[in-house]
């Protein structure tokens, strides 16, 4: 009698766990996709100050990445 109660409890827990996973699936996949979309732009490190700058804002001077034209000029001297 006691073993049947334990088996029933295990079955209920497993069913609840499966239902929870089934309903939690949609928001989880959306949460995983959004940080990846943000990471799509590569970050470059300024050679002068070490600040990480998005690829589109990087100033390239002598094939080296800089956060600004100011740092590109300052690194030359
Ligand atoms: Zn810099």
What form results from the Cα inertia axes? rod-shaped
Distance between the termini: 86 Å
Can you list the ligands bound to this structure?
zinc ion
Strand order of the largest sheet: 1-2
Query: What is the helical fraction, as a range of percent?
Result: 55-70%
Number of domains: 2
Instruction: Kindly state the number of beta strands.
Output: 4
Mean pLDDT: 85
Strand content: 15-25%
Helical segment count:
2
Biggest sheet architecture? 2 strands, antiparallel
Order of helices and strands: HEEEEH
Account of the 3D structure:
By secondary structure, the protein is an alpha+beta fold. The chain has two domains: 1-40; 41-77, Wheat Germ Agglutinin (Isolectin 2), domain 1 (2-Layer Sandwich), CATH 3.30.60. It is 58% helix and 16% strand. The chain is built from two helices and four strands; from the N terminus they run αββββα. The strands form two sheets. It has a two-stranded antiparallel sheet with strand order 1-2. The termini are far apart. The mean pLDDT is 85. Zinc ion binds next to loops. Residues 46, 48-49, 51, 66-68, 71 line the site of zinc ion.
């Amino acid at each position: 009698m006691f073993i049947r109660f334990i088996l029933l409890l295990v079955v209920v827990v497993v069913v609840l766990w499966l239902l929870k996973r089934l309903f939690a699936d949609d928001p989880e996949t959306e949460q995983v996709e959004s940080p990846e979309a943000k990471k799509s732009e590569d970050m470059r490190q300024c050679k002068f100050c070490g600040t990480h700058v998005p690829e589109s804002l990087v100033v390239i001077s002598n094939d080296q990445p800089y956060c600004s034209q100011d740092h590109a000029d300052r690194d030359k001297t």
